[in-house]
Amino acid sequence: MDTPTEAPESAAGSAAADGADALASLAVATAQIGEALRCSDVRGFGDDGLLMVTAAIEAAGRRVDALRVAAAAEIADRSRFELGTGRLSAKKGCRTPSELVQRMTLVSGSTANRRMRLGSQVRTDYSIIGEALPPKFPATAAGLATGALGLDAAEAILGSLTPTLNRANLENVQLAETELVAAATGQSMDTCVPATADEIRLQASVWKSVLDPDGARPDDERAFQERGLRLGRERGGTIPVSGRLLPEIGGQLQRLFDAYLSPKSAPVAFLTPEQAQEELERSVLERSVLERSVLERDDRTFDQRRHDVLAVILDVAARSAEAPTIGGAAPTVLVTVRQKDLLQEQGVGWIDGIETPLSMRAVKQKVCTGGIQPVVFGDENAICSLGVPDRCFNREQRRAISARDGGCIIPGCQIPASWSEIHHVIPDAFGGDTHTDNGVLLCWFHHRTIETSGWKIRMLRGVPQLKAPPWLDPGGGKWRYVTTSRTRIADALDLRMGQSD
Question: In this protein, which residues make up the domain named HNH nuclease (predicted)?
Fold first, then answer.
């Protein structure tokens, strides 16, 4: 009669035998592939044959990748911290399961971690009583196991949908997963060919915004704090640049690159260094530095200030008459947003050419600065009507407002008029007009933060007034006229001298 401990040992022995057989079969199959096709043979294929072999190799690679992920996840599971000295990694003299995977596969740490992380999301777990628990993303797990889904596409799906699990309806998340897997494997009714991993990543980001429209707000806050631009030390005659750009700034930079690098729109010649220096000196001379009784505290880091300077430069370059055009127009960033999201101030917008969604705060700033053009789609996405662009200050209005304000109206800000945006004091949604009596100059940073900084702006007979935030002006928040226009300052001085006579 078998003792209770002999049954598990027997089962373990059987499993070990099955594993050995599987390894032997895998070794034979690998050898056969190696004999049938060598790397040097690839050069002898015709065009169609080369493409067929490439697809077949990738299909085989997806099956191997699925086994790699499963093996790495199992090693990680057997190396759980709660197992103590009995964990697999410790028994083999490794500090972490990642180190053990690296030793056995010779891959990098990032690759080992990638496989373990992905495997943990698609593996079947077991409850305390031994019942099998389905994976959180069954469609992705099945597609990955059969080789129909590659690692890149699986990561794109899981990376976008995992954060929505705790905030969105589970049925909707699973619907999104099913649709994305269908698109990646060519089973979707919306496409006749399987989508690439990059296309799946784009679709998944849209699904994420639909499932969790409020999820972009904390991401936007974190991104706003992490923005920055750094110039490194000179090496070999060049200066490295690094940092992180907000999506709207990255989109604008990319658009300018497109304009300047496109063979159809690139200018014949750029300004010479002497001309560029002359333009810079002229802009400096046009700016006067004034003493103020109330100045804003600037808590931005140097990296953040560099980023914001780049944002201003990009805006000025895009508006410059010398900037090349795309399709007959200035290199303008196209932002799309659903009308109901804009009215309800939730959800996100999208920039042409940028995968990262745009927060509603950034969308509102773009609308305030660049105007809006309504487009109405029918049930089958046909364009039913196209509105006329509005809410955009024209060149004559900008000149008048620049002459009145002189530059960014926030006290202490040194951004000149030519580098500033025009802000609608009363938003269009509340009846505000695109008129000089409703527009003031703000630099990119103060325009982006005007709703959260505490500064208040109002117009009194066509002249802007400011009220400082409580932490800056604890004396009661007095409304003050503000300008850096030299002509308006001269008028104010004449009035004071006339009163003293």
Answer: 396-448
Domain of 117 in residue numbering reads as 47-212
Whether residue 101 has pLDDT greater than 90: yes
Helix (H, G, I), strand (E, B) or coil at 232: coil
* CA–CA separation, 328 and 48 (whole Å): 41
User: Which residues touch 190 (CB under 8 Å, ≥6 apart)?
Assistant: 183
Tokens 């589970």 locate to 170
Nearest to 423 by CA among 405, 403, 438: 438
Name the domain boundary from 166, 195, 212.
Answer: 212
Pairing of strands 125-126, 132-133: antiparallel
* CB-based contact 221:360 (threshold 8 Å): no
Phi-psi region of 147 (alpha: psi -120 to 50; beta: other; left: phi over 0): left
Q: Residue 73 and residue 64: Cα distance in Å, rounded? A: 14
pLDDT band at 284 (very low <50, low <70, confident <90, very high): very low
Q: What pLDDT is recorded for position 287?
A: 36
The arithmetic mean of pLDDT across residues 272-277, rounded, is 44
Distance (Å, whole) CA 348 – CA 361: 9
| 270 pLDDT higher than 60 | no
132-166 pLDDT per residue, tens = 777 788 999 999 999 999 999 999 999 999 988 88
Taking each helix axis from N to C end, the angle separating 197-211 and 151-161, rounded to the nearest 10 degrees, works out to 10
| C-beta of residue 134 within 8 angstroms of C-beta of residue 170 | no
Angle at the Cα of 71 from the Cα atoms of 183 and 115, rounded to 5 degrees? 55
In degrees rounded to 5, what are phi and psi of residue 404?
A: -75, -45
Label each residue of 354-390 as H, E or C.
CCCCEEHHHHHHHHHHHCECCEEECCCCCEEEECCCE
**Number of structural domains in the chain:** 2
Domain boundary among 174, 194, 212: 212
165 domain residue, yes or no: yes
Strand, coil or helix: 335: strand
Q: What number of residues does the chain have?
A: 501
In a domain, 327, yes or no: no
pLDDT, tens digit, 9 for 90 and up, residues 24-77: 666 666 666 656 667 777 788 888 888 888 888 888 889 999 999 999 999 999
- By the 8 A CB rule, do 296 and 472 touch? yes
What number of other Cβ atoms are within 10 A of residue 11's Cβ?
10
